[in-house]
Amino acid sequence: MQEDGKKMSGLVAQASLREFFKTVLQDAIRGHDVAVAEPTEFYLVNLLSEFAATDRLFTEQTEGGRDHEPLALLYHRAQQQEREERIRTLRRLGDVSLYKAGFFSESLNRTAVGPEYYIQMGSTSYGAVASLAPASGFAAVYRELCEKFRALVEVLEEIAARGLAAAGAQGTLKVYETWIRTGNERLQKVLVDAGFIPLTSKDGLVN
Question: What is the DSSP letter of 66?
Answer without folding.
Answer: P
